[in-house]
Design brief:
Strand content: 5-15%
Radius of gyration: 39 Å
Oligomer: single chain
Number of domains: 2
Number of strands: 4
Strand order of the largest sheet: 1-2
CATH topology of the largest domain: f41 fragment of flagellin, N-terminal domain
Shape: rod-shaped
Structural class: mainly alpha
CATH superfamily of the largest domain: f41 fragment of flagellin, N-terminal domain
CATH class of the largest domain: Mainly Alpha
CATH architecture of the largest domain: Up-down Bundle
């Protein structure tokens, strides 16, 4: 190759290689410092697009899991009302039996009736209970339900029942003002009414338990889906620290070598001075 002053192709080539090495070195440093394999969209455009969708799905999964936990809390509150109603009915049933005691005076049965009426009012109050402003029960015999989505895509769903605790059901007869235990015949009729109401309450509580169990399994499936989504997303977006550290060491060596060779190429042009001296 001929010697010239204006052009030093060796130095130009060395400078170009050094610039490329510096760019790769900075990219490697960014990856290791951020823990992300894709620093710029140009690094892996397709992978970045997939990762963005997976990240959004993970966030939706977390939100869905929160919704399911809230639905579980709703059912637990509802079950607490059922448990209280069971205790109230049990006491009412006890009062109907005590009212049939032949040794009791009319004043005694009147006292039983006073407590019985108070407990009827308590059942009515339970029927209007709410959770965060949302009614736990409905007032129609057909009952009602609420939809709970169990997957992040809002396609898979289940329902939770909003039973008619004190509406047009067997419970309504138990809390009717016409239900009286002031007489033996009235107490006997009230006993049958309360037994029927207790059977209805048992069915409601069993329904509540089955729905809570279903939501629990849905939450477990959500957790599994989230773990797998995170693993898949990690394979796309996360940097392999061991491999990238190796690349960083390689680029450091290349940078040092490139700097030395650029200096050597710049020195080679001075040989022209010897020809001119």
């Amino acid at each position: 190759m001929s010697l010239s002053i204006n052009t030093n192709s060796s130095a130009t080539s060395a400078a170009s290689n050094l610039n490329s090495t510096n760019t790769m070195l900075q990219k490697s440093l960014q990856r290791l410092s951020s823990g992300t394999r894709i620093v710029d969209s140009s690094d892996d455009a397709g992978g970045l697009a997939v990762s963005m969708k997976m990240s959004a799905a993970i966030r939706r999964t977390d939100a869905t899991n929160t919704n399911l936990a809230n639905a579980q809390s709703f059912l637990k509150t509802q079950d607490g009302a059922f448990a209280t109603a069971t205790k109230v009915l049990t006491r009412m049933s006890e009062l109907t039996t005590l009212a049939q005691d032949v040794t009791k005076t009319s004043g005694d049965t009147a006292n039983y009736q006073t407590e019985f009426s108070a407990l009827q009012g308590q059942l009515t109050a339970l029927g209007s209970s709410s959770f965060n402003g949302v009614a736990l029960f409905v007032s129609t015999s057909s009952g009602g339900s609420s939809t709970v989505y169990t997957n992040e895509d809002s396609v898979t769903s289940t329902t939770i029942t909003k039973a008619a605790l004190t509406g047009e059901t067997n419970m309504a007869a138990a809390i009717s003002t016409g239900t009286s235990i002031a007489t033996v015949s009235g107490a006997q009729a009230a006993t049958a009414t309360i037994n029927t109401a207790m059977a209805s309450l048992a069915t409601m509580r069993a329904q509540n338990g089955s729905e809570a169990s279903k939501l629990k399994f849905a939450q477990e499936m959500l957790t599994t889906n989230k773990n797998n989504l995170e693993a898949a997303n990690s394979r796309i977006i996360d940097v392999d620290v061991a491999a990238e550290s190796t690349q960083l060491a390689r680029f450091n060596i290349l940078q040092q070598a490139g700097t030395a060779m650029l200096a050597q190429a710049n020195q080679s042009a001075q040989s022209v001075l010897r020809l001119l001296s």
